[in-house]
Amino acid sequence: MKLSKRIQQVKPSPTLALTALAASLQAQGIDIIGFGSGEPDFDTPAGIKEAAKRALDQGKTKYTPAGGIKELKAAVVEKLKRDNSLSYEQSQVTINCGGKHSFYNLMQVLLDDGDEVIIPSPYRVSYPPMVSLAGGVPVIVECPERNGFRLTPKQLLGAITDKTRVVVLNSPSNPAGAAYTRDDLAALAGAIAGRDIAVVSDDIYESIMYDGRAFANMANISEEMKQKTFVLNGVSKAYAMTGWRIGYMAGDAAVIKNVETLQSQSTSNPTSIAQYAAVAALSGDQNPVMEMVSAFARRRTLIVNGLNKVPGFACSQPDGAFYAFPRISDVYRFRGWEKIASRYEGSGNSSKLCSYLIDEALSGV
């Protein structure tokens, strides 16, 4: 059967493919160390699970409004006010089937064919495909380690054209763990001000910051930036709820209304039970989040120190999130690497090294 040209241009998520490979090997009894999927290994906190059980017992298993229940929208509004000093009405908030779904929906609503979306690199692997599926053109801007893997105003100005529609900022970032300061964002805002450009602030790792760093959001910089910014977040990372699939978005009410129209014709509402669990997550005890972040901080020290002892590896301390992003280019200069690389298909050295580590070290990275 003929497939659309659109879907033929989309490649499977490499992180999910790696996770699936690790799972298949584990099913065969092979002990694999999995570093592939961006998922906390903690259990969902007990209070959140109890809220889901109550919702089940109370029969809250029917359709909800496409854009989410009012209780969860109210919890999001309160969270944004409490944690981010941002004021929104419920009409400016929508609930989606995970943070990735929020981004996908927004691209579908904002982009026409040929519109450009600026994406700092390194980036979350799903950003470019979701832009392309909406007819947009991903414009990748390389952000080197010497700049902390952060986009600079000069780079941003150099990437903006008359076709630029959106700038994506993920802080702290996947996979580099780079976090923008308020001063960083204020400088970037200067390049965006006065232009018809929206900002996507992907804040999914907001709660996972290290060394006393303060989280900063573009929507806090000025009233103009708040009007241009769409805040994307969810419960997956902070509350170890990746499988519950609840994300949310806050921004311009007219755009949010159209996102809900789109969602009403695709997924309809996010899972009702998961929505009630998310209310408990956002409104309840936040100590489990702080405990997880403390554990992540200890692990960060261990993994970064360990990576820096591996010949050919060099890894800087991430500002936030739960990723380590080592520089491995020196590995490719080792005698014998070409022979190892020839064993694997593909053109990228990094993907070949990942395959090698699965084969020889039983580690999925």
Specify Rg, calculated over alpha carbons: 21 Å
Tell me the number of helical segments per DSSP (H or I, 4 or more residues long).
Answer: 14
Quickly give the CATH architecture of the largest domain.
3-Layer(aba) Sandwich
At CATH level 3, the topology of the largest domain is: Aspartate Aminotransferase, domain 2
Number of strands: 9
Largest sheet: 7 strands, mixed
When the domains are counted, the total is 2
Spell out the CATH superfamily of the largest domain. Type I PLP-dependent aspartate aminotransferase-like (Major domain)
Classification by helices and strands: alpha/beta
Give the percentage of residues in beta strands: 5-15%
Shape: globular
Which strand order do you get reading across the main beta sheet? 2-8-7-6-5-3-4
- Which consecutive residue ranges, at least 5 long each, have pLDDT under 50? none
Q: What is the typical, i.e. mean, pLDDT?
A: 95
Q: What's the helical proportion of residues?
A: 40-55%
SSE sequence, one letter per element = HHEHHEHEHEHEHEHEEHHHHHE
**The CATH class of the largest domain:** Alpha Beta
How far the N terminus sits from the C terminus, by CA atoms, comes to 35 Å
